[in-house]
Amino acid sequence: MPATVPDLPDPADALAKAGRRLDARGLAPATAGNYSARLADGTILITRSGAHKGRLDAAQFMRVATDGTAIDAGRSSAETLLHCLIYAVDPAAGAVLHTHSVAGTVLSRALAGRDGIELAGYELLKIFPGVATHEASVTLPLVDNSQDMPALAALLRPILLAQERLVPAFYIRGHGLYAWGPTLDAAEAMVEGCEFLLACAWEEVKLRGGADDQSDPI
Ligand SMILES: CSCCC(=O)C(=O)COP(=O)(O)O
Ligand SMILES: [Zn+2]
Question: Against a cut of 0.90, is the pTM above it?
Fold first, then answer.
């Protein structure tokens, strides 16, 4: 059995339960999404590729090293290197969740050519570290999708490191959200909050008649 993180007596079980909750919220269609936790020995417990994230059990997790190399037999998530990147750039990250929502996917495609999703004026902005008021603006980094994970990770690394205060979430256009936190509960709260904000932003874009007309933050 893998080593355990202090807040997760059984990390696979806790991640599987989170998967069921995310699936119930429509954030894990088909086999979309992947989840991981940093274990006490520094290795990463992550979902295997192709598993349905609403029906996970312990057999659908495996350990990888910090560079994504498999420790256990089998094929880890196709997006393992993005999890490795997050743990590398944020030493406080304890769990990473990746979701696919309709609103986020469509919004990110509507924002063609933009490198961020700016969210402003929402009470829920207070989910982000250091934000204490709705009178704030937080930009989620937004990058184009790619099937080349080393290239995608290399693209994201300097973007994440350049942030004055690290925003624990980013978006891959037409693909999905990555969000993380020091604990699994915190990561789940971040993913829920971001998906809520993305859904609000998409509704506002629709009300205004389309992203191309927007000069204001969404
Ligand atoms: C059918 S979803 C397409 C792949 C994807 O984006 C995803 O999140 C799941 O990939 P994994 O290899 O982690 O199952
Ligand atoms: Zn994905």
Answer: yes
